[in-house]
Structure formats: C-alpha cells, structure tokens
Amino acid sequence: MDDDPTTPKLDFKLLELLVCPLTKSNLDLDEQAGELISKKASLAYPIRDGIPIMLVSEARKLTD
C-alpha cells in the first residue's frame, strides 16, 4: 500500500479480527506489499482498494 492519501487503508480493527481462512492463524500486515501474510500457511492475501481478499485461490504462495 503506497503513501498516496487517496489510497484506502486497511482498518487496523479489522486486522485484529481477520485470520487465515486455511489455518485460522493470525495474519501479519505487509503495508509495503499491500498483503496480509499467513506464516503458518505460507500465503500472502492481497489487499485491493483497502479490502483484504481472503480467498485461498487469490493468495500468493510465499517462498523461502
């Protein structure tokens, strides 16, 4: 997520409630990449227009 003031930001209260749909584990926010990271599932869920896309089919596989 960039520093553009017109870009919607993720609500941090929402982040506290979200979990990985695959593992039900907590997520970490990567603001620079605009993704929510599930370390347990090794997946990165995209955030588009301030909305987290919590679909495994839309997630990017993380590499070591």
TrEMBL record:
InterPro entries: Trm112-like. GO terms for cellular component: cytosol. It holds the Pfam family Trm112p. Belongs to the UPF0434 family. This is UPF0434 protein D5400_02800. It comes from Georhizobium profundi.
